Amino acid sequence: MKFSKSSLTRRRLLASGMAAPFVSAIPGLLTPARASETTKIQFMYPVGASGDINTIISGMITEFNETHDGVEVEAIYSGSYDNTEQKVITSLGVGEPPSLWLPINSALQTFLGLDAIEDLTEQAKSDDIYDDFISGFIDTTVSEDRLYGLSFQASTPVLYYNKDAFAERGIENAPVTWDDLLETAKALTIRDGDALKRWGLIIGGGWHDWMFEAYCRQNGLVPWEKDKVLWDRPEAVEALNFWKTMVDAGCMPKASTWQGAANDFMAGTTAMLYHSTGSLTNLRKSSPFEVGVAFMPKKKTFGAAQGGGPIMIAKKQSDAKKEAAWTFARWMTNTQNQAAWGEATGYLAVRKSSWEQPEMQAYLKEVPQAKVALDQAAYSGAFLQVPAYSRARDVLKSAIDRTLEGEVAAEAALTDATAEVNREITRVLRRQKG
Amino acid sequence: MTTTTQTELPNSPKRFNWPRFLRDHWLHVVMIPLAALWLSPMIWILLTSLKTDVEVFDQSAGFLPEKLNFSNYPSTLSVAPFGTYLINSIIVTGSILAGQLVTITLAAYAFARMTFPFKNLLFTLFLLQVMFPIYAIFLTNFVTLQEMGLLNTLSAMIVPFIASGYGTFMLRQSFRQVPSELSDAARLDGCNHLEILWHVFLPLVKPTLIAFAIISVVTHWNDYMWPLLVTNSENVRTLPIGLGLLAKADSGADWPRLMAGTTLVVSPLLLLFMIFQRRFIDSFMHTGVK
Amino acid sequence: MSKTFARARRNEMFLAYAFLLPSLVFLATFTYWPILRSIWFSLHDVMLGDPEIYWLGLENYTRLLDDRLFWKVLGNTAFYTLTTIPISIVVALLLAVAMDSKLRGMAIYRSAFFYPVMIPSVAAGMVWVFLYAPSYGPVNEALTTVGLPRLDWLYDSDWAMPALVIMSVWKYSGYFMLILLAALKLVPSDLYEAARLDGVNAWHRLIHITIPLVSPTLYFVIIIGTLHSYQVFDYVYIMTQGGPADSTNVLTFYIYQTGFQYQDIGYASALANALLFFVLGLIGLVAVTLGRKVHYLGER
Question: Which class in CATH covers the domain with range B76-287?
Answer without folding.
Answer: mainly alpha
